[in-house]
Amino acid sequence: MGRPAAVRAQGITKCFGDVVALDGVDLDVAPGQIHGLAGPNGAGKTTLLGLLLGLALPDDGSLEILGTPVKRALAAPDGVAGFVDGPGLYPSLTARQNLAALAALRGGARTAGIDDVLGEVGLTDVADDRVRGFSLGMRQRLGLAAALLTRPRLLVLDEPANGLDPAGKKHVHGVLTRLADQGATVVLSSHRMDDLEALCSEVTIVATGRVVFTGPLAKLSAESGELDYRLRTSDPEAARRLAAGVPRLRIAEDSGTRPDAEVLVVCGPVPALDELVVRLVREGVAVRELAPVVSPLEAAFLALTEQRETSR
Ligand SMILES: Nc1ncnc2c1ncn2[C@@H]1O[C@H](COP(=O)(O)OP(=O)(O)OP(=O)(O)O)[C@@H](O)[C@H]1O
């Protein structure tokens, strides 16, 4: 028999007074997967991650973590680590002292070496500096080190890339990918679809407390529908005239009201775009740029979440 799902949530509902933060959420995360959670502000991502960390209990629905049903008592499920709303750290202690304090709190529980996890997240050089002077990105890395200290089988991270510079992000992505390669499961939230694309095999999108998509990223891209494309050519006027003549191709109204505007935004099915390129080249107009205004993933995200907003 294979390993049980790392997360199996069914019909999860969570309210804060009159606010329905989660409204019948289903979530399945296979072991060893890096699963992304995306959604507009206030969609319910942090609330959901908090439930996985045992910081709160659902009002309704069933939740199984690493094969064990979550009981009606607040406690971090065994094998789970991570943070929501930023890592909890002691500012007056050094990075190393923070981790030592956490290891001591865990008593006899299994922990990784403090130096090992500091090295893994790239904080060895500042291990003896006080956290008070750490940047947001350094705190995020230390939060990750604190979670790694427990050798988690499920790592839950709320916007772990927040505040990280590109090199820091790459480093953290490497840590998470290695962890998943070793069999651990990661569930993380992000507002950046490009980050999720770089890291995750599957994503779940929530909007106003409901799941509007869950599945592989390739399936999400396919939901993007027709995209807007930026077109830059050597002859903007000719491009506008030719684009207007291609069946099923639309020129976005807000793009280039001037006939000689350098960039034209066009929208239509791929064969219509192909036809436009053929006509441009035939007339000797060079195509300098033809690219989606937003990526297919971003477009799908916007379409799905806007649909949900307008259907409320
Ligand atoms: N402790 C709380 N008390 C009252 N309302 C809450 C509490 N926590 C969350 N909410 C509400 O629940 C909804 C979901 O919030 P949540 O923080 O889960 O969203 P989110 O998707 O993480 O948002 P963001 O992207 O802005 O971090 C929001 O309307 C929020 O105001």
From TrEMBL:
Instruction: Kindly indicate whether the keyword Transport belongs to this entry.
Output: yes
Alphabetized InterPro entries for the sequence: AAA+_ATPase (IPR003593), ABC_transporter-like_ATP-bd (IPR003439), ABC_transporter-like_CS (IPR017871), P-loop_NTPase (IPR027417)
Q: Which domain of life is it from?
A: Bacteria
Could you tell me which residue ranges the ABC transporter domain spans? 7-233
Asked if the record carries the keyword Repeat, the reply is: no
Pfam families per record:
ABC_tran (PF00005)
Keyword line: ATP-binding, Nucleotide-binding, Transport
Under Gene Ontology molecular function, one entry of this record is:
ATP hydrolysis activity
What Gene3D superfamilies does the record tag this protein with? P-loop containing nucleotide triphosphate hydrolases (3.40.50.300)
Q: Which PROSITE patterns match?
A: ABC_TRANSPORTER_1 (PS00211), ABC_TRANSPORTER_2 (PS50893)
Membership in a protein family: Belongs to the ABC transporter superfamily.
Name this protein carries in UniProt? ABC-2 type transport system ATP-binding protein
The taxonomy runs: Bacteria, Bacillati, Actinomycetota, Actinomycetes, Pseudonocardiales
